[in-house]
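DM from R.C. (forwarded with permission)

"hey, sorry to bug you on a friday — could you get me a structure for this? deadline for the figure draft is monday and I only need the backbone to look sensible"
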Amino acid sequence: MSTVTTPHSGLTASPTVPGPGERPAPAAAPHREPEAAPTAPRRDAEASKAEILRAARYLLARHAHADITLKAVADRAGVSAPLVLKYFGNKDALFARVMSFESDADALLDAPLEELGRHMVRHLLEGQTQRGADPVLRIVFAPLQGEQGEILRANFRAQISDRLAGRLSGADAGLRAELAVSTLLGLGVMYGIARGPNLRATTIDDIVDRYAPAVQAQLAP
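My reply, with the result:
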């Protein structure tokens, strides 16, 4: 019979052997650390900010600035009003962001000049189909906003039209930039606001092929 040595005494002891008809004692289960309770995922701060801005833009397109409350913005964004204050400070600061076209212009004009007409048309249409809105079209609702509408118009001219004009060479750059932008906005109104059924039944690629040359014609010197 084999023997085992106990670790403390150094003496040998016979292992426990089951008697006839007895089952061996079950082996002790291995020790396991308790699993940590799952934690609820935290909402990404940037995603929350984007939702708040999207909600504010939506409301600004449908209501006068003075009639929009932070609670209404928060409710539409699915966040609390204190979170809106945490991220943006106050209503004026929030709507200063909403009425700026700076980041929109970055995306709208992000292409070489020789390809810019196609890029602008595609960007506008993909904004409607993939993101549900094109922020540049906020200018269409400026008449609703009184004094805030003047800010919206001034920002649009400086951050969209004038910025585009600064990229153009040749005569009448300012006029050509405004014509290109107005051509683009006409498409946006028909596609996103009037929701022309024939236009919306046409693929984006087809619309780009047909419409982009009209925009690009104003961009070429």
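R.C.: lifesaver. Confidence is low (pLDDT under 50) at residues 1-15, 36-41.
me: no worries. Residues 53 and 97 are 8 Å apart (CA to CA).
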